[in-house]
Amino acid sequence: MRASKVDRQQQTVRDWSRVKLTCVGVFFCLAWLGLWTRAGYLQIVAGPELAEKAIRQHLASEVDKGARGEIYDRGGRLLAKSVEVEALFVRPKEIVEPEKTAAFLSKVLHMKEQRVLKKLQSPSSMVYIAWRVGDRTAARIREANLSGVYFSKEFARFYPNGHLASQLMGFVGVGDVGLEGMEKAFDERLTGRQAKYVVQRDASGRRFFFDSQGRELGDINGKGVRLTIDSQIQFFAEEELEKAVTANNAKAGTAIVVHVPTGEILAMANYPFFNPNVGRGISPRIARNHAALDVFEPGSTMKPLLVAAALQERVVKPTSTFNCENGKFAFANRVIKDTHSYGVLPVNMIVRVSSNIGAAKIGLQLGATRLHSYFEKLGFGRPTGLPISGEGKGLLRPLKSWSPLDVATQSFGQGVAVTPVQLAQAFLVLANDGVYKPLKLVADPDDTAPKRAPYRVFDADVCRSVERMMRDVVNEEHGTGKTARIAGLEIGGKTGTAQKAAAHGGYGNKYLGSFVAFVPAMSPEYIVLVMVDEPEPSHYGGVVAAPAVREMTLRTLSYLGRMPETVQASAASAGQAPAAPAAQATPAASAGQAGQAARAEQAKGPTSADKEIMEIAQSTPTEVKAVEVRSVPNFSGMPLRKAVEILMQKGIVPRLEGQGLIVNKQSPAPGAPWPGENKNDFVLWLSRPS
């Protein structure tokens, strides 16, 4: 009995052990099945969604922008480039303590605290605080470890030459957008493209890997632009223009230098200057490219163009005479005046002494229809087509609105308005043997904008006649432009003194003095134009603008190595030598002396009677004697390498004094004869560019 009871108890224990084992096995089976079910669900059902979330968390697509293209001058000298800078931005939602963050950032960035705080509290997801942050400032901000504050790489525009050609170059605003000048005109070409990158991040969101297969192929940087401007000639033009404006207490000035065979603009200067590296606070008036945007009445610079049209139509000859009414001509209830009292003058003398009355009578003889037609052929009333945003088209009223008085006044440059580049374009027609050829400002890329094909306006012999008249303006005693004279070099030119319109209507007491030069006078290779706005006390173009043209010409030809060694100088009589060059005078001193002499002459009034002028104009020239003039060019401001090249061609090895790469002074002085046997006595003093 007792044995069987023990057996039953043992059997019961064994039965519960089996149950426990069975339960554990079932539990593990169910758990295993659940895991497999969950894994299958995650892999099959929820797999694509989870994979997309993982990609969003660990991989991201970021946009990178290429650098803006560079701008060069004709010789490949850098005028504008982009440099990489750090920009500071914030994510307002991530900022923990806006007040403390604003206080710190405003202190290190030198910004107003309220302005920074306003940006930190912006509802936007990202706000830029500063676009250009220096390395030291960026290091201080990083050390502060501020939440929600980040840096990004951006590009800033840099102009290595400061104000050189500033109005022509323009500048770039926020977002790398060109706002003025060439930067705006070629913004699409210069702007870098955007490229997408696949970025992998760690758990903290820090980028640590670039997927090279996610990067777009090709160069994303913007393309460059090469101008026809020569930065050295531009420097000469700006420096002499500044001297002319400041010396004559003027408001502003403009200068243009054109290479006649190609029509390329070598310099386009405006004064006052501005520094495009300083983007804020630039006055729109100063930043304007006045040479292409502003219109002026050309004044007496219109007279050579008028005479060319009259000669072309055969209504006058160079020797045709007109009565200049002793300085006052009553016409259409108005009185047209000359600065001096002239009687009967031939056409060539009308140009030489700049008679308004004579020009008015030539225009009336030409007639309104033909005069208007030639104005249109010369390009007045329409933009020149240069790639300059907002280029002015001038003011040329329709022919049907012209009265006889309009014909008379527009013949000497009143009542018609042109931009300086339009005036340069018109004189390019004269210098180019009468064929209209468009001005050119960009060498690369080739300008594909539609332009007028070249066409003939004047015959070549007509242009030669006008060039001789312009030569007399500079080289003859009674010429109004003799302050532009350069010993040993024949220059042609025309002065202009235009009375400016007053704000209340009519004409006021402000003037624009100008001078246009052909270098050399016959078959010109260069055109040099200078305009000085509102000079005081003297306002005559021959006083305020012609000396600046002279100095620009001297420095440009010296730089290019084109100063003539031997020229044919005309003498008034056999055996008479031309005026000796002022060997000991510096260019600035020569210009000042010439200006003083011209002012004194203007104060004296007429220097001779009309009869004497007629005799000079109509007399047969005496025998011309060939005079050999050997002169040293002006090396001042020229790069050392260029100066040495010119001297080596003459077999001269100069002695160098000082340190630097720019010639500051020389011996022998400009205009002196070339050294004979003592060629080693040629000295160049050097200085560093400022």
Record keyword descriptors for this entry.
690 residues; alpha+beta; Penicillin-binding protein 2a (Domain 2); Beta-lactamase; 4 domains; six-stranded mixed sheet; five-stranded antiparallel sheet; 25 strands; 37% helix
Protein model, in words:
- The protein is of the alpha+beta class and about 700 residues long.
- It folds into four domains: about 1-45; about 60-225, Penicillin-binding protein 2a (Domain 2), CATH 3.90.1310.10; about 230-570, DD-peptidase/beta-lactamase superfamily (Beta-lactamase, 3-Layer(aba) Sandwich), CATH 3.40.710; about 640-685, no CATH class.
- Helices cover about 35% and strands about 20% of the residues.
- Strands 2, 3, 4, 5, 10 and 18 form a six-stranded mixed sheet that branches. The chain has a five-stranded antiparallel sheet with strand order 12-11-22-21-20, with helices on both faces.
- A hairpin with a 5-residue loop joins strand 2 (about 70) and strand 3.
- Helix 9 runs antiparallel to helix 20 and helix 12 (about 305-310) packs parallel to helix 14.
- The protein is elongated, with a radius of gyration of 38 Å.
- The termini are far apart.
- Residues about 210-215 and about 565-630 have low confidence and may be disordered.
